[in-house]
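$ run holo --ligand "pyridoxal-5'-phosphate" --emit tokens
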Amino acid sequence: MNLTDLQALEERYLMRTYRRAPVEFVRGEGALLWDAEGKEYLDFLGGISVCSVGHCNPEVVEAVREQAGRLMHTSNLFYTEPMVRLAERLAESSLGGRVFFSNSGTEANECAIKIARKHAHRRGVEAPEIVSFERDFHGRTYGSLAATPGLASNPGLGPMLPGFRSVPFDDPAALRAAVGESTAAVLIEPIQGEAGIYPLGDATLLAARQACDESGALLILDEIQTGIGRTGSLWAYEQTPVRPDVLTSAKALGGGMPIGACIASPEASEVLEPGDHGSTFAGGLLASAAALAVLEIVDDPVLLRRVREVGGQLRDSLLGLDGVDEVRGRGLMLGVGLAAGIDAAAVGSGLLERGLIVNVPEPGTLRLLPPLTVDSDQVERAVATIEAALLSYAAQ
Ligand code: PLP
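-- output --
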């Protein structure tokens, strides 16, 4: 079956929710992918921050293969060792409380939203409210969607879940003003990912922490894109002055297997009780085995320091290119702001033709999320490719 056949079948059988690039990938190794014609690509998107330990990482593949050969699923009605060991590892590496597993990022946030609402009801709040930032992205199920202002305004999908409001991004005064007695939680991304890589300032994070402490609300950090080493520490919050009450993770956690986690502080961990939440597949054997293998690789000071160093090298090189105005982000989560007038979508298509995969989250930005295991030569190759694509764009 060739690409034209796939496109015809997709057009007939798949709901039209995605605009796909005309490439069929068939193989991957580390930071490299190959399409059906055998063309090699350098993957600086990593399945949107999923393949952080590289494609087909041997340790992850072996963990999944070994687990698949022994036992794949039993349900959450029984004990399984990978899930319990993973919960211990996640809790001990962050907030010290308990974990609820899910199958995706949006579901991890659903759990956080349930914790926040129930926590507020216990304080006597009748109509709990969750505050997020404009342009935040928390997912596409109805709770997370309501906390994603850019998508929640889609009239065709209404009515939205009530009890959500948003304030201007990175505005500590607006955030403080929005948090009060009835606030259940502030649910925010430490670095906005889907919006185009916009880090939240420390002043705003501190304002959020303080406002939550004063009102009794929970601070929930959505680390679905920033977590698992992406910014050069296991969790992005470790490089900020705040510690959340609840942390959500997914994407890179499973190294390509679908898994999410909602991790809470000891106090917030006590909110949910039997019957409040559940999921058939969550914390399943295969995904948990993969996640343990991922953490074994990523939760390593040497690797995390390398992420900061290689990220610095990438940022400095990009800033030296004609056509690049700014580089935002931390570690290997970078948004390349192009000079006014440059169409990032056209540059992105040019890069794909030249064998470099990036993504264009907004008209003037290229988003780079390479594997954390990317080497210096691959970083140089990516920068040279971006330079060539920008030169060719300018020459048109
Ligand atoms: N939160 C953030 C910050 C994300 O970047 C995403 C996905 O891009 C999500 C939540 C939703 O995750 P998922 O697509 O796994 O549901």
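-- notes --
The mean pLDDT is 97.
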